[in-house]
Structures are given as C-alpha cells and as structure tokens.
Structure to design on (57 residues):
C-alpha cells in the first residue's frame, strides 16, 4: 500500500479500517501533512512523537 501521506480522498474510504489501526497509538507524525502512524515507513517525512510522562506529586 502507499504511504498514508500519498492517499487520495477516494483511497482513504477503501482503507479506513487500516487507517483506524495505524492512528490508535501513533508514534510518528508527518511534518508535511500532519498525518500520524505507528510505523515511520507509512509517512513521507516522519518525526517521532515524544511521550510525556506525568510527574507524581
């Protein structure tokens, strides 16, 4: 399949289940279009998302 960034509107409708799975726990965001994915190979220009841990008081 194509990278998520390259999907056209009509293709999104046919791959909606796969997109839902990829977007559940994203680890990367595309710096060009803002789409998110758990696998960096799915995006054109991926940037790792930092996880913020809350401090205990």
């Amino acid at each position: 399949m194509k990278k998520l960034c390259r999907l056209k509107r009509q293709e999104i409708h046919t791959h909606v289940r796969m997109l839902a799975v990829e977007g559940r726990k994203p680890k990367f965001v595309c710096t060009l279009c803002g789409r998110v994915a758990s696998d960096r190979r799915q995006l054109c220009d991926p940037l790792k998302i930092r996880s913020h841990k809350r401090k205990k008081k």
Remarks:
- The chain is about 25% helix and 15% strand.
